[in-house]
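Anyone opening a protein record will find just a pair of labelled lines. With that in mind, the following record should read easily:
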Amino acid sequence: MGPMTLVAYRVLFGLLFGIAVILIQREKMPRTLKAWTPLLVLGLTNVAIPFFLISWGEKTIDSGVASILDATVPLFTIVVAHFLLHDDKMTVQKVVGLLIGFAGVVVLMSKDIGSSAGSLLGQGAVILASAFYAGSSIYARKFTEDTPGIFRSMGPLVSATAVMWLASFFFEAPVKVPDQSIIWIALLWLGILGSGVAFVMVFYLIHEIGPTRTTMVTYLFPLGGVTLGVIFLHETLTWEIVVGAALILASLVVANWSSKES
């Protein structure tokens, strides 16, 4: 299954999960183009475009490099948010926290970086995806404040699903239908949890604690990956994992303290 087809299935199942929640909660759907416009834009800038850039970029760069570059999201966010949002300003504590966390990701993933960092275009694609994520979180904070919570997260999946399926049929035709149950389970897992439940949480946090602190979740992605590898795949617990994890957790503490004090 190609990366675009994988993403297409993922966002489709995330959207179906959201529709089910909306029907159960009997939420009223936004009826104006003004209300839908930012949601459809976010489907492109926060889902379709970065998903494609990361999938394409990781064809030519090491996973460790990709994890480090993906962790630049909060670094982009804190700079842009400082100038565009009145309640998410840059502070010394926030900057220190972000830099500690980024250092933790570098240490954590250093053992997985090969002798070559890979294609410069591949690296650029992942960095550009990070910039899209950062900009999207700030855009969501500014323009979806009056949108009901479930639609903040599910609305973007409408345009993302349409774009990714069109891209799949155009670039990866013929689109493959999985023929193994384990693949369907994986797709449902990614869709319902990764693009359904997770999107609900992320867009809620963007409005509750701000884009900078919310995007620090990218520091936890590689930490979760290597930790699960140690537990379930019996991978070796190295000093890089221990030191990297300590730095990442310390960064979260520092950033949260600074936000409360400010």
The chain has a mean pLDDT of 87. The two ends are 47 Å apart (CA to CA). Residues 78 and 84 are 10 Å apart (CA to CA). Residues 3-261 form one domain.
